[in-house]
């Protein structure tokens, strides 16, 4: 059976997870956060004490790390060798390590295969860096979701400040720009806009506006949405409750 897949790519902190999760809730699609899979692999190397810069060691040991995902009450959980590590992967250290090890081909091949399998089984909204270009090049709807470095840094700064964590806006900006550069300039599957992707810049948009824009792209590309909100029930109510939220950088560290 052929499924309708929606690919969302873009830099860290553009709000991909928040948006993709809500859009998936409204459509009754499965949301697949591929960044979480790279983070789980990164966690494995950190735990093993393997230097992420050591490509040979990472490539040699990556077959030992079994990453899988499962869904509980609609939320994605990431398992590393059977252990739920969904909470532990949301740290700066894991994020930075994921950015390094995701540049290596054996790591990418392993996770790309898993992602393709998931998309072949279900209607998915999958977010990442290479979904529209490498993982699901045939996806009918592709979105490149971005926002300026300044806006992404400010969102992150606010989130950390709200949590009472000390942080420096200029440092955050530098980190974001660095992560962008690494993700965009690696040799394998770099972050880039697919030729047929629609660009959505969330800098001045609310979450609802971005979700609307994504649903509009999906409809334009042939997705039939039966009765829009009525069809999605509770998921839709949950999405509606955040009507005036600004987009958050939540796809980065919690
Ligand atoms: O989206 P995120 O910040 O959780 O992703 C963590 C890292 O994983 C990111 O720096 C790049 C990498 N990544 C990737 O290379 N390809 C993907 N499809 C998703 C994430």
Automatic annotation (TrEMBL):
Positions with a binding annotation for ATP:
10-18
EC numbers: 2.7.4.25
Key words, A-Z = ATP-binding, Cytoplasm, Kinase, Nucleotide-binding, Transferase
GO CC terms, sorted: cytosol
InterPro entries hit by this protein: Cytidylate_kin, Cytidylate_kinase_dom, P-loop_NTPase
Q: Which GO terms describe its molecular function?
A: ATP binding; dCMP kinase activity
Chain ranges passing through the membrane: none
Biological process (GO) annotations held by this record are: nucleobase-containing small molecule interconversion; pyrimidine nucleotide metabolic process
Chief place of localization: cytoplasm
This chain's protein is named Cytidylate kinase
Q: Which species does the entry assign this protein to? A: Candidatus Enterocloster excrementipullorum
